[in-house]
């Protein structure tokens, strides 16, 4: 059985699952230096992705489109061979809390000269399926709670077991986009005109708050205004909650909340305001999760997290540290980059229940060298030789095999550098055109992470906060964030991915089991699609791609 999951809207992607195994997932932003969050507007894109893997649309048994905006159904305007096509799908949130896994069936998916039937499941349930089916809980056939918090929905808690899923409750009435909206009112991303949904701000804000401090008087103001504008039985609160299916009304209400907040906080520094708002939301999340678990009958202590807010490593870490759960799982694609996988998993679950998906994080597009641009020299280079280049304080674009899934560079499409120089973080931020307060993440051998970080537990997908131990801060200053934390990625020494061998070689050479790791991409674009693109970018003088080192002759 081959199932093709499709995400048409932002973070567009095509995934194929065959007999319970993920064959590939092609996110559009990772092709051709495409912009971040690239959608699928032409149905030929789907045909091309299948053909790249030796498949014809007729080789697919079921096509599944991820649901989107709409209370009853969603609508997609796309193009097939130059002609407009309208497709319909499931809504964003399930209509029946007792039967969330309800399919919408339709036809007219125009691919390769044929028209194919397709099904669709609610967008939020796709997040549930992608998180649970990729977890160890599914593999062990254990139940789990699943927290989904996306841009314009309130955080929703589900209970999942192999036999099915049910909605438990909304935790509290704040949309996920409130975090990014805060950044449009305070700090370096403040905007006078605030329209639409800005997908870039939230991650940058998470870094910026390290410049500030949590002030309890500011937290108290946010709590007071939260009760008035969102949670209380006030006129404005009731109107807000009654608009929970209207994006524009929700966003307008959130901006109104911050307008009033700003009038109360004129004497405060923006970095303190944002740090305090973060703390307010984090405490609210843990508190309301605690209440929900007390009122819930199931006794599982497993938690999956998905939705765009699943990229907030500090909230993930707060839930893990709360003691409410034994294990917290966040897939490497908690945002919509995992929605094509989630759509396919929904179809799988509809037939067989929520079974475990056999998958690898390195299931994205393959890497090609491309043509070597003028001014660059290419030569074979072993990983041991590359470790020597890195030990000489020279950053390297590291491109290997198939791209990682999700928005984080995990050693397949990375810029690597030694972490031992205090200047390296600023250098990498300058190379990437990023603000000075943005952190650079460490990629570390798993069995040594605990001696360098607290807690230093295995974290292969860079989705939790770790504090750098005092005795290591001066040894690896480039990866220590302003608040002493690090967005750690761990790699097993036994992994067959080349990044593991490189870390071992670098450790043997220097005694340091980690490197700086940031994404290899143009600003505002997805990962480099080939080595030639990295060379043409030209901001890093060494590009290693599948055993070949390309060196900028002019830069050396």
Automatic annotation (TrEMBL):
- Keywords annotated in UniProt: Transferase
Q: Which InterPro entries match?
A: ATPase_NBD, Carbam_trans_C, Carbam_trans_C_sf, Carbtransf_dom, DHBP_synth_RibB-like_a/b_dom, NodU/CmcH_Carbamoyltrnsfr, Nodul_NodU
Q: Which domain of life is it from?
A: Bacteria
Q: Domain Carbamoyltransferase C-terminal: where?
A: 387-536
**Which Pfam families does the record cross-reference, listed alphabetically?**
Carbam_trans_C, Carbam_trans_N
Q: Where is the Carbamoyltransferase domain?
A: 2-345
GO function term, MF aspect, one: transferase activity
**NCBIfam families per UniProt:** nodul_NodU
Name the family. Answer: Belongs to the NodU/CmcH family.
What this protein is called in its record is Nodulation protein NodU
């Amino acid at each position: 059985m081959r199932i093709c999951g499709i995400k048409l809207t932002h973070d567009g992607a095509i995934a194929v699952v065959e007999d319970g195994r993920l064959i590939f997932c092609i996110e559009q932003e990772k092709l051709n230096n495409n912009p971040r969050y690239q959608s699928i507007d032409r149905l030929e894109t789907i045909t091309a992705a299948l053909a790249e893997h030796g498949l014809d649309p007729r080789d697919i048994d079921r096509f599944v489109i991820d649901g989107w905006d709409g209370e009853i159904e969603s609508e997609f305007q796309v193009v097939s061979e130059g002609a407009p096509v309208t497709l319909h799908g499931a809504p964003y949130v399930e209509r029946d809390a007792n039967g969330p896994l309800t399919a919408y069936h339709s036809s007219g998916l125009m691919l390769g000269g044929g028209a194919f039937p397709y099904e669709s499941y609610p967008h939020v349930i796709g997040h549930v399926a992608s998180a649970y089916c990729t977890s160890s809980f599914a593999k062990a056939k254990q139940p789990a709670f699943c927290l989904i918090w996306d841009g314009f929905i309130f955080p929703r808690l589900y209970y999942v077991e192999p036999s099915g899923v049910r909605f438990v409750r909304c935790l509290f009435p704040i949309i996920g986009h409130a975090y990014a909206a805060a950044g449009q009112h305070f700090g370096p991303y403040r905007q006078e005109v605030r329209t639409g949904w800005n997908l870039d701000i939230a991650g940058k804000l998470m870094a910026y708050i390290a410049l500030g401090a949590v002030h309890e008087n500011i937290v108290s103001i946010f709590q007071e205004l939260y009760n008035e504008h969102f949670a209380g039985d006030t006129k404005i609160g009731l109107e807000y909650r009654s608009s929970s299916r209207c994006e524009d009304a929700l966003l307008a209400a959130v901006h109104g909340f911050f307008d009033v907040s700003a009038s109360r906080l004129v004497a405060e520094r923006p970095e303190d305001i944002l740090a305090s708002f973060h703390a307010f939301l984090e405490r609210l999340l843990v508190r309301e999760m605690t209440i929900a678990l007390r009122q819930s009958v199931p006794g599982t202590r497993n938690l999956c997290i998905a939705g765009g807010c699943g990229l907030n490593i500090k909230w993930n870490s707060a839930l893990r540290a709360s003691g409410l759960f034994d294990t917290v799982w966040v897939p490497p694609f908690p945002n919509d980059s995992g929605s094509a996988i989630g759509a396919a998993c929904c179809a799988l679950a509809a037939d067989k229940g929520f079974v475990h998906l056999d998958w690898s994080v390195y299931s994205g597009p393959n890497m090609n060298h491309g043509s070597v641009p003028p001014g660059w020299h290419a030569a074979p280079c072993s990983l041991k030789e590359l470790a020597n280049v890195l030990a000489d304080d020279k950053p390297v674009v590291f491109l290997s095999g198939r791209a990682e899934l999700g928005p984080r560079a995990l050693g397949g499409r990375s810029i690597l550098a030694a972490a031992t120089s205090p200047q390296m973080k600023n250098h990498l931020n300058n190379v990437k055109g990023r603000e000075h307060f943005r952190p650079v993440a460490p990629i570390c051998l798993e069995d040594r992470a605990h001696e360098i970080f607290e807690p230093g537990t295995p974290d292969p997908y860079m989705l939790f906060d770790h504090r750098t131990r005092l005795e290591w801060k001066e040894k690896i200053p480039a990866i220590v964030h302003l608040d002493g934390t690090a967005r750690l990625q761990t790699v097993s020494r036994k992994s067959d991915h080349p990044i593991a061998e490189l870390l071992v070689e670098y450790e043997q050479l220097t005694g340091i089991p980690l490197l700086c790791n940031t994404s290899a991409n143009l600003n505002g674009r997805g990962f480099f699609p080939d080595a030639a693109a990295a060379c043409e970018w030209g901001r890093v003088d060494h590009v290693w791609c599948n055993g070949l080192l390309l060196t900028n002759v002019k830069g050396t």
